[in-house]
Structures are given as structure tokens and as C-alpha cells.
Amino acid sequence: MIHNAQLIKQGAEAKVYLAPFCQRQAIIKERFAKAYRHPTLDKKLTSRRVVQEARCLNRCQKALIDTPTVYMVDLENSLIYMEYIEGISVREFLVTAEGETPEAQSRVAKEIGTALGKMHNIEVVHGDLTTSNLMMRKETGGSVVLIDFGLSYVSNLIEDKAVDLYVLERAFTSTHPNTEVMFAQILEAYGESSKAAKLILKKLEDVRMRGRKRSMLG
């Protein structure tokens, strides 16, 4: 049991708590056991995921990509203690009056694209890019922070990075109407910061084609 913890989110893989840690508010992410798996195998897989998430976050931090700082990893209890980001998600931002202005969208798009390009340069694939997993820091006037690396992994495959971008594009088109220009600006900034942008953006076209075919076939 986590002391003085407040459950703020529960997903299919983990529970996320807000709790005091070392005289500050922290996010504590708990990966829970899967009853359908053999306990020994489950423990091994869960530990591997916890380590993988923490390593990807640390890798991003070293590359000066804004992500939550990892304070502590408790492998025995499958917990990651990390920085609490005060602010709003890009999803929330886009429904505010400011978030609907072309100037604000352009600024945020540039930050998102630049951050994703840098992340892919160090071979980190996020695995779950949505506008809910992009936060805007309150104390820095709304600079973009990448969060929730629960499905992240290390890969140098062009395909994996293209799929990462495609997942975000789908999140934009399904949740935020009239943001085509903003997503194009994200890709433009990505093109400037990603070392393999030409190959990745070309592969994104292929991934889109496959996605459309799947939609047509139901």
C-alpha cells in the first residue's frame, strides 16, 4: 500500500497515483499483476516493463528531451516514482480559447515535432503517442513534456518510428477536428530535428496506406 496516495488514473497495465515523496508531490506508477499469467512469468515480464520504461525516460533526460524525472524504481513492488508535471495536456489545451488560435497551435506543434525528432534520434519509440500523453508545463509557460512511457522501447527500425507518428496522427484526426495544419507543422518540425526524417516520413506514407486499406476492409 502506498502511503497517502491518491489514485488519479487506472489503465489496462498500471495504476497511477499522486503522493508525497521526499517533501514534494510525485507520480507513482504501479504495474499490477496479471492473474491469467503464471506468477513467476508475470513477475519477470512486469519487472522487465518497469525497467524498460525507466530506462527510456532516463535516456530521454540525458538527451535533454523534457520528460518526467525518475526519482526511484522499486522493482520488488513494480513501482516507478517520478516527477509530477503540473499543467494541462495538449488534449485539454486544444479545447481552450488560446489553443484554438493558429499562433498557439503553431508554437505547440513546433515543440512536439522537435521533441519527437530528438526522441527518435536516440532510438526511443514511445509506443502510445496521444494528445493526452503530451503535457504542457505550467511553470515554463506551457512548454511540451512527453509523458507515459509505459509502452516505450528502444528500436532503430524506421518502421517503428513511422508507426509512432501514425499513432499520433490518428489521435489528432479522431479527437481534434480541424487540426490538419497543426499536424503538418508537427511533421515539418520533426523533419528538421530527426536525422532520418526523410526515410521515416516516406515510411509514414506506407503506414497510412496500410491503415486506409484496413479501414476499407473493416
TrEMBL record:
Job of this protein: Component of the EKC/KEOPS complex that is required for the formation of a threonylcarbamoyl group on adenosine at position 37 (t(6)A37) in tRNAs that read codons beginning with adenine. The complex is probably involved in the transfer of the threonylcarbamoyl moiety of threonylcarbamoyl-AMP (TC-AMP) to the N6 group of A37. BUD32 has ATPase activity in the context of the EKC/KEOPS complex and likely plays a supporting role to the catalytic subunit KAE1. The EKC/KEOPS complex also promotes both telomere uncapping and telomere elongation.
Cellular compartments annotated: Nucleus
Keywords, in A-Z order: ATP-binding, Hydrolase, Kinase, Nucleotide-binding, Nucleus, Phosphoprotein, Serine/threonine-protein kinase, Transferase, tRNA processing
Annotated source species: Entomortierella parvispora
Enzyme Commission code(s) on record: 2.7.11.1
Catalytic reactions of this protein: L-seryl-[protein] + ATP = O-phospho-L-seryl-[protein] + ADP + H(+); L-threonyl-[protein] + ATP = O-phospho-L-threonyl-[protein] + ADP + H(+)
Entry protein name: non-specific serine/threonine protein kinase
Family according to the record: Belongs to the protein kinase superfamily. BUD32 family.
Pfam family, one: Pkinase
One of the GO BP terms on file: tRNA processing
Domain Protein kinase: 2-218
GO cellular component, one term: cytosol
InterPro entries, alphabetized: Bud32 (IPR022495), Kinase-like_dom_sf (IPR011009), Prot_kinase_dom (IPR000719), Tyr_kinase_AS (IPR008266)
PROSITE patterns named among the record's database cross-references: PROTEIN_KINASE_DOM, PROTEIN_KINASE_TYR
Any one GO molecular function term: hydrolase activity
